[in-house]
Each structure stands twice: as C-alpha cells, then as structure tokens.
Write the structure tokens for this entry.
Amino acid sequence: MRSISELQSLADFWGIITGGGGHVGQAAAAALMELGANVVLWDRSKAALDIASANLAEYKNQLYTICCDLAIEEDIVKGVEQYREISSGRLNFLINNAAFVGTDNLTGWAVPFEQQSYDTFSKCIDVNLAAPFLLTKLCMPLFEITSTGCRSVVNISSIYGVVGPQMAMYEGTNLGNPAAYATSKAGLMQFTTWLSSVGAPNIRANNIVLGGIYRNQDEAFVEKYIQRVPLRRMATEEDIKGAVIFLCSELSNYMTGQSIVLDGGWTAI
Ligand SMILES: NC(=O)c1ccc[n+]([C@@H]2O[C@H](COP(=O)([O-])OP(=O)(O)OC[C@H]3O[C@@H](n4cnc5c(N)ncnc54)[C@H](O)[C@@H]3O)[C@@H](O)[C@H]2O)c1
C-alpha cells in the first residue's frame, strides 16, 4: 500500500488550468506546482498570464502559458495543439476554471432579470459551458496516452449552480446575480456527471463548488453574506488548494462524478 505522501505526489504530472491568469487559477497552480506538477495556464488575457507567471516563478517545475479566447472554437483547437507540443501529449489533469464571473462588467449581465441580455446569456454559456465541453473532448486522446499518474477533470462550479440567489443581499450594491452564470454552472455540473460515466474508466471527473470569495466587495453585502454562512466568513483563494490537490492527485483515485463543496456551509442550511 502506498503512503499518503506517495499518493499526493504530483512529480512529473502535467496539466491545464483554464482562467489560469485569474485568482482561483493562480491559487490552484501554486498548490499543484508546490507538489511537483508542471502546469500550463490558459487565459484570454496575456497581461494576466504574465502576472501569473511572475507570481509563480518561485516554483522550479515547468510553467507555460497559452493565450486563448475560450469563446472561439478555433482558439481552443489551436490551444490543444500547442499544449500537446509543450507536454509531449501528457495530461494528468484538466481544470475547467475560466468563466464569465458575477463581477464581470458585461452588458445586460449583473442587472435585474428584465434587463439581462440574451446575447450575453449566450456568450456566457459559450465560455462557461460549451468551452469546457469542447476542451475536455479534445483532451480525451491526451488522457488516453497518459499511462502514469492521474487522469482527472476538475470543473469549477459555484453554489449558484446548486441553489438560487437571495437577491436581497445585492440591494443597494453594484453587485448582481445573472441567470446565465447560475445556469452555466448547473450545466457544467451535469456535464461532470455525464462525463464521469461516459469517460470512465479512462478519466475521473469531479466538481469543486465554490461559495463567494472575499475580494473587498461592498461592506453591506459582505455583512449580509457572512450572516448567512455557518462558518461566518467568505471564502479565500487558499481554501481551494486542498480540494484541487485531492482531486488532481491519486488521493482521490476512487472518486468520480462527485462534488466537493467549499462554501462555509452555505448550501447545508
Ligand atoms: N470569485 C468567486 O467568488 C467565485 C465563487 C464561486 C465560483 N467561482 C468560480 O471560480 C472560477 C474562477 O473565478 P475567479 O474568481 O478566479 O475569477 P477571475 O476573474 O479572477 O478569473 C477568471 C479568469 O478567466 C479568464 N477568462 C474569462 N473568460 C475567458 C475566455 N473567454 N477565454 C479565456 N479565459 C477567460 C479571465 O481572463 C480570468 O483571468 C470561475 O469558474 C468562477 O465561476 C468564483
């Protein structure tokens, strides 16, 4: 029987994190690299990728970036080709993390329902749901030729893919809760369930379901939010590290089609 440290070792692992220039993507990369993984960050923002690379420079494993707009099919296809060359085709984990998020400044997005835009709804579904579908599909041949370590897909979802919003929390703030975001995250979770069956036994697929992360939001909003959370605080990026390591390593070898919910208890009450 292997030891815990052998099971959690990510030495020589290779993987992709989409939205790797963002907050959660960088925290996931730091955790994976600390345990030995080689990571390829994907993001549409070259500037965000450059900052992420600088922030992760302390880790001595291999770190690459691919600048790619996940709203564009051709970009995803090219990105997978680029990834194949970088990693010699080896793929142990794919973290579908990039998303249009609630705080994005988009037209007809974080506004009352009657003002939410059909066009932005569709674009959100493209990036948050159709892109993970296509990227995962194109990655299947790479998983197939990877003979050592894990073959794990991790989809980053949200409590709003599970429960409805409490709109009173947003009153008097510039924050909102778009239907498109919630719908895309619920769809992503069902894609995970579907994939855990269809992709087995070659790959495992699981979700990380996140609650709201503290980023200096409006004080009144934060106060109302934490009153609703049993652990009485919002999440931090650090909170995701353990779940990322668990799901991307052999620690979770017998787990597929499930969710790890990191929400301070939001969905438990
Ligand atoms: N922040 C939260 O409170 C929270 C809560 C629950 C779930 N989540 C989920 O966590 C994940 C990461 O969110 P975050 O808080 O780090 O957000 P973030 O905005 O810091 O990072 C998201 C990254 O995705 C990239 N991205 C967006 N659209 C893209 C596209 N079309 N192509 C390529 N890259 C694109 C952005 O450039 C950005 O770097 C998301 O899936 C989000 O839904 C976040």
In short: Helices lie at 4-8, 23-34, 46-55, 73-87, 118-145, 179-198, 219-227, 241-248. The chain has a mean pLDDT of 97.
